[in-house]
Amino acid sequence: MVRLITHNLLACHVKGCTTNNFPLQFQDVQIELQEAEFNPDFVRNLLPRLEWGALVDAAKQVGDTSLPPEQPEMTDDDVLQKLHHVLLEIHITEGAMVCSNCKHIYPISNGIPNMLLSEHEIG
Amino acid sequence: MSRPELQAPPEIYYGDSEAVKYTKNTRNQQIQADLTYRALELLNMPPDQSAFLLDIGCGSGLSGEILDEEGYVWAGVDIAPSMLEVALEREVEGDLFLQDIGQGLGFRPGSFDGAISISVLQWLLNAETSHHTSAPPHRLHRFFTTLHSALRNPSRAVFQFYPTSDDQIQLITSTAQKAGFGGGIVVDYPNSKKARKVYLCLFVGGGGGQQQV
Ligand SMILES: [Zn+2]
Fold first, then answer.
1. CATH match for A2-101 among 3.40.50.720, 2.20.25.10, 3.90.550.10, 2.40.30.10
2. Which ipTM was obtained for this model?
3. Which range is the signal sequence, renumbered to this chain (chain A) (predicted)?
């Protein structure tokens, strides 16, 4: 399964695709919600690695609008709870991720994104 | 029987029946568990941190189950679809990706707190096709440089693997060094042909943790 936590850390890795290669855009996605144990420390540790704007956009693309558009200065428990849900409880099961720059399509089938490149796309 | 990596590429070798057979074999499960616990020991994560790890060649999730139990959040990559199917059926918690590590990883800089890999690196030593970008040194180089970037500074990556010669160890360690990693090889039970296990312990920056391996 792919969740927004990994989507937010994933860029296109096609040869020469180095600008505007993040975030990958979701296309025709189906989702499944699965509860995960809330660990505020984990979410707090992760926060500096995340691109807030990309996360808000990705959440919107899968139908979740709970996050504020700007990263709040104070990450209280309420924000951490919302982040926890967005990052770890929404599973993308079908669809695709598309690179805005080179248009490479990474299909997602049965919860697993296919990241394989063809010979001419390998760096 | 020769080692599996000498018989066929992993995505072929671990076809549907082999993937299930491998995963259900209790001896494999035990070995894989022992190797995973040892790799985690060498990874030496700070005990109070809830870390995000990468499982390189996660297969059917035998190591992933242990990462779940140990409270890690993780993502796994593997080139064998059949193995990933089995991992899904076993309902491991990690995010799974179909990926050829020899093509390089696409994770943004500093994504992971650490990485483990059990019985995978030796697969990179076999050429996939005749194309020059498929030569083992190229594949190792792409893999190590993109992994180095995907890890936080400081952090570690620990690989248990099965080298068949000192030349192979030399190629792997020198390529990892060129990619910016510190660290080196740890050999457990060096004098027992059967129990001998080789671990490549790579450091980004100081490698994190207190104790040196
Ligand atoms: Zn691209």
1. 2.20.25.10
2. 0.97
3. none
